[in-house]
Write a structure and sequence with these properties.
The structure is a single chain. The chain is mostly helical. It has a single domain, classed as Glycerol uptake facilitator protein. 74% of the residues lie in helices and 0% in strands. It has helices at residues 4-34, 41-64, 70-78, 84-108, 111-116, 130-153, 166-182, 188-198, 206-230. Helix 1 runs parallel beside helix 4 (84-108), helix 1 (4-34) packs across helix 8 and helix 6 runs antiparallel to helix 7 (166-182). The longest helix has 31 residues, at 4-34. The chain is globular, with a radius of gyration of 17 Å.
Length: 232
């Protein structure tokens, strides 16, 4: 049985890795494009984000539950699977991990590379409104958290080290859809770390309101529709 300190360290490391890789992939795509080389494109960025999530959930899921996302954590809090104090501590670990990942990436990149993409900070398409972006971030996060509940939380689900990887595949698929429009953060920590390190706060509230609402709704729906029915 892992203690709280070990769980928080796992959440820190997992979020650090996810932010460092997902934002780093955007910087890499920018560099390749600027040097007239084939870029990663949306597919490459999606795979980097999704595979990072899948690997971290597989690696640290048995330790902390593998949240790495305040929207996942709030879904567990609203269904009373995580206490209020632990929820706040998980959030703190996730935000600190995101900050560390972003600042580490910034230190490794030249200014000309990371400034062109605001260090991978998610951004809205020019003709995409905040309301549309919040809706898109909310729905994509809802789907992410539903899959998380189905594979990690549900004792009768498909939890094992291979099935949990489906969480990462879900993230990759959702990024393919949402990245061109909202940047596909689906995770307040993923947005906050690069925004802080780059000083790019435009439309930042979108990446808290949408994902947190999606996480709450996903947790409530899965708990009501599936988990509570199992105990009846």
């Amino acid at each position: 049985m892992y203690n709280l300190a070990q769980k928080l360290i796992a959440e820190f490391l997992g979020t650090f890795t996810i932010v460092w890789i997902s934002a780093g992939a955007i910087c890499a795509d920018q560099y390749l494009t600027a040097t007239a080389k084939p870029g990663l494109g949306v597919l490459g960025i999606a795979l980097a984000y999704g595979l990072a999530v899948g690997v971290m959930v597989t690696a640290f899921g048995p330790v902390s539950g593998g949240h790495f996302n305040p929207a996942v954590t709030i879904g567990l809090w609203v269904t009373r699977r995580l206490g209020s104090i632990d929820t706040l501590l998980y959030w703190a670990a996730q935000v600190l991990g995101a900050m560390a990942g972003a600042y580490t990436l910034k230190a490794m990149m030249s200014d000309s590379i990371w400034e062109a993409v605001a260090l991978g900070t998610p951004a809205l398409a020019p003709d995409f409104s905040r309301a549309h972006a919040m809706a898109l971030e909310g729905v994509t996060t809802l789907l992410w958290v539903l899959v998380f509940f189905a594979t990690v939380v549900d004792a009768n689900g498909a939890f094992d080290r291979i099935a949990v990887f489906s969480t990462g595949l879900t993230v990759a698929i959702l990024v393919l859809l949402a990245y061109p429009f909202s940047g596909a953060a689906m995770n307040p920590a993923r947005a906050f770390g690069p925004a802080l390190a780059s000083g790019h706060w435009t439309n930042h509230g979108v990446y808290w309101v949408g994902p947190l609402f999606g996480g709450v709704l996903a947790g409530f729906l899965y708990d009501r529709l599936f988990l509570r029915r199992q105990s009846q």
